[in-house]
Amino acid sequence: MSNKVQRASNRSRSSATDATGEVESLWNVLPPETVGRMGDRVSKSESSKKERSAEVAERMERSSAKRRKKMTTRSGGTGGDGIFSSSTILEGGATDSVYRPSNPSAREAHSNLVDLLSSKEYLGSQPREVLTSAAEEVLTILKSRDEKDPQKKADLGRLLTGSKSISDGVYNKLVLLGRQMDDYEEYRDRELNVNNDKDTNMDDEMGVAVVFNDSEEENEGGEDEEGRSDVEEDVVVDINESSDEEKDSDNGSDVDDEVDEERLVQGVGGKKKASNNTRVLSVHEIDAHYLQRRLGPSLEDADAAESARLSDEILSVLDFRGGTSIRECENQLLVLLGFERFDLIKLLLANRVRIWGCVSIKRATDETTRDAIEKSLEEEESGEGRRTLEELRSRSMAEDWKGERMKSVRDDTLRKKEVIDKEDDEGGDGATKMSKALDSIQVRSKEGEDVTMEDTPDSSKVAHELDLESLVFRDGNHTMTNKKCDLPDKSWRAMKPGYEEVHVPAVRSIPPAGEKLVPIEELPEWTHDAFKGMKSLNRVQSKMADVALKTSENILLCAPTGAGKTNVAMLSILNVLGQYRKEEKDNDAEEGGVKESKHEGMFDLSSFKIIYVAPMKALVQEVVKNFSKRLAPYGITVRELSGDSSLTRQQIAETQMIVTTPEKWDIVTRQGEGRAYTQLVRLVIIDEIHLLHDDRGPVLESIVARVIRQVETTAEPVRLVGLSATLPNYADVATFLRVKPEKGMFFFDHSYRPVPLQMQYIGITERNAFRRFQLQNEVCYEKATLQRKNGNQMLIFVHSRAETGKTAKALRDIALERDQLSLFVKEGGATEEILREELSTVKNADLKDVLPFGFAIHHAGMARPDRELVEDLFADGHIGVLCCTATLAWGVNLPAHAVIIKGTQIYDPSKGRWAELSPLDVLQMLGRAGRPQYDNEGEGIIMTAHTELQYYLSLTNLQLPVESQMIKTLPDNLNAEIVLGTIQTISEAVDWLSYTFLYVRMLKNPNLYGISDKAASEDPTLKHRRMDLAHTAACMLERSHLVRYDRRSGALQATPLGRIASQYYISHTSMALYSRHLRPNMADIDLLRLFSMSGEFTHITVREEEKLELSKLAMRVPIPVKESPSEPSAKINILLQAYISRLKLDGFALVSDMAFIQQSAARIMRAIFEISLRRGWSGLAKLTLNFANMVAYRIWRSQSPLRQFKNVPEVVTRKLERKSDIEWARYADLTPSDLGELVGVPKMGRTLHKLVHQFPKLELSAHIQPITRSILRVELNLVPDFEYDVKVHGYVQLFHIMVEDVNGENILHHEMFLLKSTGAEDEHIVTFTVNILDPLPPSYFIRVISDRWLHSETVLPISFNKMILPAKFYPPTELLDLQPLPISVLGEAAFIKLYNFNEFNPIQTQGERLLSFVITNYSHGCGV
Questions:
Q1: What is the pTM of this model?
Q2: Torsion of CA 559, 564, 565, 568, to 10 degrees
Q3: Which of 246, 600, 720, 841 is the most buried (most CB within 10 A)?
Q4: 241-265 pLDDT, tens per residue?
């Protein structure tokens, strides 16, 4: 029997498993009419009190005492909101109150305390809630009146470091900070009083808000001594299930909830809105009287004045300018409106900024007031104010809103019709009423005509602009579209203090009796070298051998990690080799000649290329290493092409297999230059194709669509091979890859895993964030001791380098405290002696601290000898527990019996917040569980928040469908195709969408992608929907000036901005920003401010714990930052400068943000450089090119150019920079001894002299010749004046030749010059023409700048003083608009006979007076 763990309902629901004995809200427990307004005392008659049975009262008291004693919390009973949600009505649920300072000095002290706790010595970079919760724990100890300083110091030491004490200096600092937070005692007393009042009111007047039923008594003894629930071991109970009575009573409403959830997916509000699905209002439905209209139904007896007064009060409460928090706003609204308007309060809180801004603007009576309101919205911290203003200024948003509202009305009407049809058996009256209702609905199209419901299908032929943002999956790769999760038989769960465990047994498979493994010997003999050391293929490979090796069918392979997908890729590669194998060479090889390889000369290696797309650089390098070794006997060259490694044309020509990342290959195929070798591609292998579900999925969709369209256009076959982890909708992915299901689609479940994997899912239910953080270490230790008792090794994956050391130390301290170190290292054993001997070679301090106790750490920041030592010791079994980062999962094959993923949240700089791990990382980490040679079974343990349990259950149990994320980047992907030339009309764009995975999923699940059932049934191919999507993307690109879109003909044409965006991977929003705000005279400050506003950094925010460090950094960066460090744009600016300055950062999140910013910085600066060139702005072009190189080399223009060489010591460059009186140009004239004396290190003189003369430099001379008075011919001679070294300069050096006007402001001509290593000693001539300005300027300047080297620049002035321009020609005679003359005007018949036409042309007519002269002196054949 299959058991189900269902998704929490969106409704708040009470059940026997929900109550904790803590004070809870009575909302949704008692009817609203019995609750009354907040603050009112609800009187209860004595008779009603007596009616309460003694049995129920006793049960309540017993349950409350039991739960208070256990200190457990609800595990899923709060519905979709979960147990960690905020305590506001808007977000639902309740959590522990958090201390918030009430005065400036206390706020500053609290910020300093949080900053101290986030340092590496203590908690490190953690989510904000963990740090604030830890700060409150610290304050509780500091403010305790029962303990003295030594005890407080010891308690703080145990709390923060796990040791028994902290230094006196740190303790004194904490005490000082605690004293500055003088409002903490007041806060604590207030919270105690509030809780006491609540307890008194609840217990005396209404009782504790818990619903009990018959199952409560049975649950009291529900846990046995081992902590396991009283359910059977082979049954998983619904995590959120209610009692039987409640299920029966709510049966009807559950159906309504499913309908409402389905309507919410389609963008239509349901009857019951969940708190986290509260509708976001459109600004166009909020007018000056919006609040009065919403209050109207509940104020029937009140007059208009009362309604206006109440709406004014609500508007003042919603005003955010006073700094009122959402909690205070909620309380004030509850007092004003009461609980009976619960839904209205949620709506107001969810749309606080929108409602206040729109109502205030539309009530404004003058421009001054309106400007002030708009300024407040612009400065609103969350960014909602700016979005509101943008929507108010957007006409298309209003049209979209109207369309959505009409759609909502139509859906409601159709739903009512279905109800009427069901209730009315005869159907006559209902059908008539329904018909009238449908006839009354009319939709205004863009052309202005009225379209009735009957006309709607016809009107859909006209493309409509959609709101793409509303169609994007908000959760990205965390999107979970399955409503329930079916688990295997014998799955069970256990409730423990602070967390819940769900256990899923390993899936085992007994091979069929007739199953045969394919021996390597049965494969063609020439393929054996690729499988050295193997005797046979495994089960998966054997089933696929014939299709992969002997056919060219497209393949999709879905199999668990470790199933041997790499060898399937090898079989498909050998298939390509077989197609280009020269059979006639076989005999020659046997007869004569000694060859380095028996395969030498057997393959036509210049006729094909193979592309292997891997998702991460670490995996790219692993694939290159593996395939290079295995394909070497065949003469195949395998090279890497990733973000920081590029290949020359010669290298590409010599390479048969390119291993690359999706983004890099997308860039290559976007550009026409790559077509020379992309036409030779015969096989594309896409590893981890379930990456389609990730935020990077649209890149894969673009690549595959481009390949398939190329195959159809050129008729050149390209085989697609997709390798994936197991996923439920593999058939959709196969359709996308054009795989024939009966031939190329293969799906293998977990039973094909080499080592069966038993899974444990630990959902932390603890409310207090800091206690949750501590509980994770305790759970890790419990699992580690269990493994060590069985003699097993364990990997614990954490998500930062610092956390590896902290976790290892925490586990060691717990082992010391519990006297269980012998579980990890036996006293007097060989392991203890080996670890003691190796300790002397360890450099990492954290590793040295924990290694003697049998623990170790591993991450990319460690020295290579340390990492290799840890890997060897772990492989030999001397290390029992290894704390590591995901680097070990991707780059090193080091399996263990058990794997723990400690927490699933990691800081994601692209989102600017802590987010869930990507499915790719989770599956890769779990792939390290189980050692094929030693284990019959592996164990994987995922530790996460309780609200995320279903997601990870679905992910690892084949029930998380892969969805398309294409809509998020649709405009940018469409622009790339337009620039490439594969799309030239909107109809071609519609056709292109049919090649995407988005189209496949829209056909399968139209509702999820915002398509109604009616629209899907009327348009089976979704052509109209694709038209709307393409039209919307084209309109967005047109508004950003990236394309020209002719709506009549549907023609699409790329603009220069569009080409730049495609080449440099810049979003259309950023390009629109640059187009509007770039100025020719921008300085460093202005350029960095514009850079920090780029759309790529939209999600970067400033966290409270970062403000202090950012303020310090702002004082150290060289370019002033005008904004406050609390502004996101200032943070981006500061971090970019800190990266160039090589400043050291403390916070892990800040380091991640800085890495994310620098990855985009050079690319963005290059894009702005290209824009500047096209606009002819010399100053900005030079500035942006300099910044691009400054980011690349991490040096400033004021620093020594020699820093661009890698082998110059820091001390030497600093000494050179102090000699600022010597210009860089003079260094070439200095001798080695002079340079050695200059830096005070005579031995460095020779090295410096060599580097100075290797620095790229060109000597220029020019010959000019005016062709006309407006065109100047320039012949420029370029002579390299440096020592060319291929190891330093590469094979090619690129230079920009710019001709500037006399002021150096405008670029009159630009072209590029390539200096190849073969011509490094030759003179080069470049000829070009330039316009001559009028009036004639005194001179021009020719500037030659290196594309990659700072300070490599040569300027040649061209004087016009002695230049002689050609004579000025008179302007041509103006042609008059005259009536053509007939030839009869000549008067002489003889003359008339000379012409075979009847009238003169316009020029001949205008020269009538000269006609007789012309005829007399010239032949008529000249035509004059």
A1: 0.72
A2: -120
A3: 720
A4: 333 433 344 444 443 443 343 333 3
